[in-house]
């Protein structure tokens, strides 16, 4: 990793990734269980619902050895772990098409892997799904990834600080929990609710149709979820992703992230777990590109008001 | 604009932009000078090299009136200005194919527009070029844009702080000037030099083939450039962009930004003007997508080491 002194961010280099598997033919899908022992895939045959393995082309590795000095660069070994989570043995299903029990199992897998990585000393654990070729996805078998970072990314440290400031100045109330409560009572940006969680377009959505799923009870990470909370999150995830696909009757490309507090042995009472879904389409025939203002200034310009997006998503017939 | 309380960033909404001009046929290019008075374009006919006008679909406007309150959102009027800079009357040329004098004129135009916007009370002025359909460009006539923000974006405030910290702890030396001096003496990431400026791949490049152009003399903004400095910047810009297009003999899609200090009436001795060029292709046949780690954690993972990228760009035959 090298340090970007203006942005105060680490940049990770993994030159070996340049040759990684790129859009293989369906006949050589490496995420299918092995059918022919002569041509093994990444996964054995067997009776399982969800599989996890280390990414063959990881950006971050556990045993990288000391970093090679580079003149002019402030460097550090890129300690961490990159895993692939295969959502299903069926290569044709999308995440939301799995049963709610199956999705709840995936939530449990994310929690289990977070526990293991945290015990291995990893500081920040980000489960995510890149969905669609428009997001750069090179394998269409339903799967996500988990990035475990040996450091707390600067963006995450800033969101910790923002939530702590709120927590300290609002006598122990959580910023994101309070936001979710407001959205539940206002209703105008609400998409769906369950007993233990709700889904809404945040009032400050950066992406058109951006949707958050937030448990009603504060909790810093996936390990704090009870089984009923896992089920409600899974059920909302299925509903929201289905609504996004049905919005224009085409698979919506998106980035889905599970946003946990860092596993850095600090107290994170300020943090509320949240799922963020960032669709990258702004209309049926137009993608949302990140360009000058979004990338150059971190100022997102959106064509769709959050209230309008929520109304459209609510009106989708399931 | 609405405030994102976790990221501490403004998000701009411009619902009228949804219907903006999208990939018009060559026969209805709105950036061509008007040929038929019955079918006027955005520009009059006439003898000129570069044209600037206000974006017909602006994200930020000077006279927006008070913002309409939205329950649950912290809002503010999106004061600012969005302009289009047409680089040439010829719809087929790329920026680097213009004469160095013509590119220097564009640099002067960026400076003039920055002066005018700053005098109108705009706090941060970002000239940029989105190049290529892969960057979401909807009009292929050679042009860039200028976004003038009525506030200092959080990202920019952080880079001010980073440069000030360096300036204060290094007895008046500028972080970016010092970086450029080091790159000149090390040479391993250098691409090209002129008397008053140099081009290099930064040691912490986030994009494969990311290239910076930095004047040798510190200066907070485009207004500080002397005519010889403008010429050297223009000459390096032409060379670097040509090298990027020749690297794989195909037009390189990129985001080009001119990074000036805020125009906020503070002293910005810490700042050095820099041009950043972010190509979004990582190999001849593969785009660099921003996905889970880049967007979800602001941690860029790159497949190409800066030293290797610089060597490739240097070896391109012009």
Short key terms for the protein model shown above:
6 helices, two-stranded antiparallel sheet, 14 strands, homodimer, 318 residues, nine-stranded antiparallel β-sheet, 21% strand, HIT family, subunit A, alpha+beta
Polypeptide structure, described:
Two copies of one chain form a homodimer. The first copy, chain A, is an alpha+beta fold. Chain A has one domain (about 1-315): HIT-like (HIT family, subunit A, 2-Layer Sandwich), CATH 3.30.428.10. Chain A contains six helices and 14 strands. Chain A has helices at about 100-120, 155-170, 175-185, 225-245, 290-295, 305-315; strands at about 1-5, 10-15, 50-55, 80-85, 125-130, 145-150, 190-195, 195-200, 210-215, 255-260, 275-280, 280-285, 285, 300. In chain A, the strands form three sheets. In chain A, strands 3-4-6-5-10-11-9-8-7 form a nine-stranded antiparallel β-sheet, sandwiched between helices. Chain A has a two-stranded antiparallel ribbon with strand order 1-2. In chain A, a hairpin with a 4-residue loop joins strand 1 and strand 2 (about 10-15). In chain A, helix 1 (about 100-120) crosses helix 4 (about 225-245). The longest helix of chain A is centred in the C-terminal third of the chain and has 21 residues, at about 225-245. Chain A is globular and about 55 Å long. The mean pLDDT of chain A is about 95. Chains A and B meet through strand 1, strand 2, strand 5, strand 6 and helix 2 of A and strand 1, strand 2, strand 5, strand 6 and helix 2 of B.
Give a quick rundown of the structure.
2 copies of one chain form a homodimer. The first copy, chain A, is built from 6 helices and 14 strands. Chain A is of the alpha+beta class and about 325 residues long.
């Amino acid at each position: 990793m090298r340090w970007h002194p203006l942005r105060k961010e680490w940049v990770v280099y993994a030159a070996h990734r340049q040759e990684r598997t790129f859009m293989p033919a369906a006949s050589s899908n490496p995420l299918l269980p092995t059918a022919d022992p002569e041509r093994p895939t990444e996964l054995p045959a067997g009776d399982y619902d969800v599989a996890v393995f280390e990414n063959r082309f990881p950006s971050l590795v556990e045993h990288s050895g000391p970093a090679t000095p580079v003149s002019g660069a402030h460097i550090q070994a890129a300690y961490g772990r990159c895993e692939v989570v295969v959502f299903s043995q069926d290569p044709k299903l999308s995440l939301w098409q799995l049963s709610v029990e199956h999705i709840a199992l995936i939530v449990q897998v994310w929690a289990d892997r977070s526990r293991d990585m945290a015990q291995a000393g990893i500081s920040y654990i980000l489960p995510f799904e890149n969905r669609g070729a428009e997001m750069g996805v090179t394998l269409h078998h339903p799967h996500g990834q988990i990035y475990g970072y040996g450091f707390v990314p600067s963006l995450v440290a800033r969101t910790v600080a923002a939530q702590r400031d709120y927590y300290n100045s609002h006598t122990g109330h959580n910023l994101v929990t309070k936001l979710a409560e407001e959205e539940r009572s206002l209703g105008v940006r609400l998409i769906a609710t369950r007993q233990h969680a709700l889904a809404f377009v945040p009032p400050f959505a950066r992406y058109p149709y951006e949707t958050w799923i937030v448990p009603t009870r504060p909790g810093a990470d996936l390990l704090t979820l009870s089984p009923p909370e896992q089920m409600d999150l899974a059920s909302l995830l299925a509903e929201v992703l289905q609504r996004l696909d049905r919005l224009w009757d085409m698979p919506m490309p998106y980035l889905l992230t599970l946003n946990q507090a860092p596993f850095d042995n600090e107290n994170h009472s300020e943090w509320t777990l949240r799922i963020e879904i960032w669709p990258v389409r702004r209309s049926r025939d137009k993608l949302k590109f990140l360009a000058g203002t979004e990338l150059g200034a971190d100022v997102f310009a959106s064509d769709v008001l959050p209230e309008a997006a929520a109304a459209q998503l609510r009106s989708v017939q399931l």
